[in-house]
Structures are given as C-alpha cells and as structure tokens.
Amino acid sequence: xxxxxxxxxxxxxIGDDQIKMPAVGMTLGEVKEKVWAEYSIEQVKSxxxxxxxxxxxxxxxxxxxxxxxxxxxxxxx
Amino acid sequence: MEKRCWITDQPLDIQIITEKVIRREAGAINTFIGTVRxxxxxxxxxxLQYESxxxxxxxxxxxxxxxxxxxxxxxxxxxxxxxxxxxxxDIAVMIAVSTPHRSDSYEASRYAIERIxxxxxxxxxxxxxxxxxxxxxxxxxxxxxxxxxxxx
Lengths: 77, 152
What we know:
CATH topology of chain A: Ubiquitin-like (UB roll)
InterPro entries (chain A): Beta-grasp_dom_sf (IPR012675), MOCS2A (IPR044672), Mopterin_synth/thiamin_S_b (IPR016155), ThiS/MoaD-like (IPR003749)
Radius of gyration of chain B: 16 Å
CATH class of chain A: Alpha Beta
CATH topology of the domain at 5-39 and 54-121 in chain B: Aldehyde Oxidoreductase, domain 3
Shape of chain B: elongated
Helix content of chain A: 25-40%
Largest sheet of chain A: 5 strands, mixed
Subunit structure (chain B): Heterotetramer of 2 MoaD subunits and 2 MoaE subunits. Also stable as homodimer. The enzyme changes between these two forms during catalysis.
Oligomer: heterodimer
Strand order of the largest sheet of chain A: 2-1-5-3-4
Organism (chain B): Halobacillus karajensis
Protein name (chain B): Molybdopterin synthase catalytic subunit
CATH architecture of the domain at 5-39 and 54-121 in chain B: Alpha-Beta Complex
Largest sheet of chain B: 5 strands, antiparallel
Largest interface: A-B, 21 and 33 residues
Order of helices and strands of chain B: EHEEEHEEEHEE
CATH superfamily of the domain at 5-39 and 54-121 in chain B: Molybdopterin biosynthesis MoaE subunit
Mean pLDDT of chain B: 91
Keywords (chain B): Molybdenum cofactor biosynthesis, Transferase
Distance between the termini of chain B: 27 Å
Number of domains of chain A: 1
Distance between the termini of chain A: 35 Å
Structural class of chain A: alpha+beta
CATH superfamily of chain A: Beta-grasp domain
Strand content of chain B: 35-45%
Low-confidence stretches of chain A: none
Helix content of chain B: 25-40%
Radius of gyration of chain A: 11 Å
Strand content of chain A: 15-25%
CATH architecture of chain A: Roll
C-alpha cells in the first residue's frame, strides 16, 4: 500500500488529507490518472507530484510504502 | 548545526533571524519581510490561512539556501515561513542573507523569495469580505526541479 497526501484546495475537494491505495508497480502518471478517474477533480491534473518529499517525474515507478503528495500550484511568500 | 530554514506556526522575530546571519566577515545583511496585504486589486482581505507540507517545505527551503551557497559562496542565509491564520500586516516569511558586500545580499535575498514562490509546498487561502479562495501562483508549468545552468 502507498499513501497519497492532499493539500490546500485539493484536500478540500477530495474531503480528506490522505488516502491509502494499492499502487506498487504503477507509475506516478498512472496513479495520477487513477485519482483523477475516481474523483473527477480537474485540479488533480495541474498538480505537481512528489514521492517521499521530492518532486518526481510521471514515469517514476511506485515502491511499497511510498508517500505520494499532490502539490497544487504553490502560493507561499 | 542549527536549522537555517524552517516552517513554524509561531510569530516570526526579525531580531532572532538577523542574529543568525550576523558575523565578522559580513559587510551587509539584507532582510526581506513578507507581510499580509489588506487590499489586492481593490478586494479587501480579512485574513489569510497558510498551509504547508511541512517536511517537504523545509527541505525545499533548504534546497534554496543550498542554491544560494552555490551561487554566492560567501553568503549566509536564513529563511523562515509562518503557517496558520495570519492577520493583516502579520509577517508570513522572513529571509536574511549576510554577505561581505551589499550587492550580493540584495541579489541572494531576491533569489530566495522568487524561488519560494516556485518550488516550496506552501499555500495560502485568501479570506475576502465576500468569499474565500486558495491561491495558486500559476507557475505549475515549471517542474520545480531546477535544471543545471538554470541557477544564475
């Protein structure tokens, strides 16, 4: 199982700050597709994605225990 | 070594942050203080709510400080960002950079705030008089991973 984290507007749209799902062996891009298919939230597509606290490309293969964070456009400062 | 970059839900203190970069080799300390603005394009903000992915945000702030080390090797940098509910004029972010000469301190400080707005997972929610909205800087087309040579 892996953990998905959601923040800011995406967290509110999904209604939870994290979910667990089986995704080992999938790519990051496929996980993104799956979340988009399940929730139909447009914002999922514009998110950057981080694996274990580092931005990662969509080809990245998911390992057991990974934490995947959906990062909406940031607005710090 | 003490942390030089951090996220906190407590008020930021310019004195404490400045003291962390002051040293005999420095001839300049540039501090940037980002505060909560009341009016944006005529719309009145009541307060802001900041949220972060704390562990990653601290790593990305540290990455920015490392980028500054690479480009301005004589700089000493401290960056702190506050999260939670902030009222008008509260301090959201504070950057202090000390360098031997002034021009480097200005440039490095400016570099830090621009990079924060690109790669650090922190979000603000505007609470207006007539609604609320999560703000995104619309820079999501940048992958967030600085390319070699991209660091000026």
